Amino acid sequence: MKRKIRIMLISIIVLLSLPVLAQEPEKNSANLSLTASTLPEFQASADYTFVLPANTDLKVKGSVSPVTVKAESEAVWTPVPFLQLVAAGSAGTGWNIDLADGLRINEPDGETGNRLVGDNCDGVVYGAGLGGAFQFDLAAIMPGEWNHLLFRTYHSCFYQGLTSADNDQSWMYENDEGENRNGLNYYANYFIGYKMPVKLSMIGVLFESDLRLYDTKNGSDWGDDLVRWTISPLVSFDFTEKLSGTCLVQFRTERNYIEGTGDNDFYQTRRIDKDNTRSLTFYRAVFILGYKLGGK
Known about the structure:
1% of the residues lie in helices and 56% in strands. It is an all-beta fold. The chain has a single domain (13-294), classed as Beta Barrel (Porin), CATH 2.40.160.40. The chain has a twelve-stranded antiparallel barrel. Strands 7-6-10 form a three-stranded antiparallel sheet, with no helix packed on it. Strand 4 and strand 5 form a beta hairpin. The longest helix has 4 residues, at 13-16. It is globular, with a radius of gyration of 20 Å.
């Protein structure tokens, strides 16, 4: 499939993966964020967190990009400070412009070609899943404002689908590669960072992995069964008590194909190089600006 300029939503999972950037809320709170990248991409979002009894938070969020709109919710139960259990759900749709496709069905066309079909807002992309996180802060056992050496890992299993697609159809959402299918997925991340009581408030590295759990016939031929890794060194700044910024430089694994098949437009006609399946390449730089509205 020919690559197009991307002007679409950047997954807010990056922010959800880094709750260590701020203290856990003790009262209801609201936030705004703007996200952009070098691809280019752009997203604006707003969220509100309700603090409930029994160490439970409920976050609701809405986001919009030039070609998509999405609503999300997330319930987080923290039975002990180092453990979180998460239930999440989302629903969104997209439309198509000259520069980007928000939502399309990706069909084969001829021997190696593809075609993108579907009208604007033709279906709803929905998701639901369960996850858990383990997190550790050295300052919890060695108090001190310069002792915040952080570690967090999050793992989730979630179902994602498009209402207008059959289980054997591929689809594109948010102008991605168009390799999505209705089914179960596994996502995990690992974060190591150091938090400081200065304007440069955080440095760290985020490792993310994605694995498709649905069984596509002959999927191993084009590498559908391979884990996809993204590695993101990051820095975060606290400009004021309310205004913050984060920058990530992302590298990701790309599949290596047998010569002559890598340029095939429809991804299922490509053939993975079994002797050298993946390589690590630069993906994008991401910039996130956040503003705390406060709460009551």
